[in-house]
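Entry for the shared binder. Reason: the reviewer on the internal report wants the predicted structure included alongside the sequence.
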Amino acid sequence: MKKTFLLLAFLLIGNAFVFAQSADEKAVAATVEKLKTAIISADEAELKKLTSPSLSYGHSNGLLEDQKEFVRALVSEESKFTKIDLSEQTISISGDVAIVRHKLFGDTHNKGKEPAQVKLGVFMVFQKVKGNWVLLGRQAFKLV
């Protein structure tokens, strides 16, 4: 009985450590969610708040944008997401830098184009600036 209890206690404590997220990891995850919402709603103020003025934003087709172009394309609906689902997200923190990887499945309806679905792998770099995490770099690639 004692051995069973000790084994169960060990497993529960071990799982708590595996699933524990640091405060920074939680903050980065929340920032990713805010960014996703801002992209869908094309909220200019929020997009600027969540991204660095030094942003390098790489699309899966090879297009590179800075912060100004990234925000302009979304606000003008040149690039428009109507739905974004993220999965298999991982977050790694090193000092004031966070690396986020996830899969993105979404629906787009870009200006002048038919609605389409996208399946992307995404790699993002966030930097903690004055207590807030901002997107510094992003690169997407098509999933097959």
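Summary line for the report: The beta strands are 51-58, 64-65, 81-94, 97-108, 116-129, 132-142.
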